[in-house]
Amino acid sequence: MKTPLPTALHKAIEHIQKFRLWTDEERELSMLQTLAEHPSPEEIWVFGYGSLIWRPEFNFQEDRLATLQGYHRSLCLWSSVNRGTPEQPGLVFGLDVGGTCQGKVYKLHDDNIHEQFRLLWKREMPSGAYIPKWIRCETMMGPITALAFVMDINSHAYVQGLTREETVDIVLNATGSCGPCPEYVLETANALAQASINDENLFELAELIKQRIAKP
Q1: Residue 40 sits in a domain of what CATH number?
Q2: Largest CB tally within 10 Å, which of 14, 111, 112, 170?
Q3: Is the separation of the CB atoms in 60 and 80 below 8 Å?
Q4: 93 within some domain
Q5: How would you label 59-95 residue by residue, b for 16+ Cβ within 10 Å and e otherwise?
Q6: Is residue 1 part of a domain?
Q7: Which GO terms describe its molecular function (predicted)?
Q8: What's the domain count of the chain?
Q9: Between β-strands 179-180 and 175-176, what pairing exists: parallel, antiparallel or unpaired?
Q10: In terms of residue numbers, what domain contains 27?
């Protein structure tokens, strides 16, 4: 297995130098502000586009396939906690600007919303690299407003311009508190395929990762 390419490591230097975990107080404030901004608090929906599709970890009443306009799924976020370390960051999905993204929306149960959101924030917002937004999503049963974790393109954790080879090398060499980075990418690709969600770029990347893993 190759080590990450020097160019890829160079692109991670700023993130490695500036990485900082959010405090519990920072996460709580962000969560409360986001809930307060909900335009229709009687229904709480969450849009999943990565691991939330195959490991939501919250109670939900209903799920639907959904399409989000103006953003696309991308491995554009350095992960120094869940799927990497500060010394060897991995990559996780973010909603990057432009295009469309197909995923799933989940309608949460009304009880214990704050506790469910605290768990969600602990998982998705360890360092505040996402911007939580309430965004209109299209479903077969009509439009809804759902919470989506959008990439903060001004964050030092934002990465773009990686070649496919660089991306594969980074993914193969990273492991974090939630497990190996290759598992994360492959499980997401598999979950999308099972849900009949087409993401050719991700499927091609997943095949390259599997080929590299299979090499002696």
Answers
A1: 3.10.490.10
A2: 170
A3: no
A4: yes
A5: ebeebbebbbeebbbbbbbbbbbbbbbeebbbbbbbb
A6: no
A7: glutathione specific gamma-glutamylcyclotransferase activity
A8: 1
A9: antiparallel
A10: 6-214
Residue 193, in any domain of the structure: yes
pLDDT digits (tens, 9 = 90+) for 127-175: 899 999 999 999 999 999 999 999 999 999 999 989 999 999 999 999 9
Backbone angles phi, psi at 212, to 5 degrees: -70, -40
Distance between CA atoms of residues 32 and 178, nearest Å:
25
Instruction: Please count the residues of the chain.
Output: 216
Residue 8's identity, in one-letter code, is: A
| Token digits of residue 54 | 């195959």
Residue matched to tokens 């491995």? 75
Tokens of 55: 């490991």
Q: Are 71 and 150 in contact (CB under 8 A)?
A: yes
Report the pLDDT value the prediction gives residue 3, as an integer from 0 to 100: 52
Q: Which of helix, strand or coil describes residue 143?
A: coil
With a cut of 50, say whether residue 7 has pLDDT above it.
yes
Find the mean pLDDT for residues 107-125.
Answer: 92
Amino acid at position 64, single letter:
R
Within a domain: 30: yes
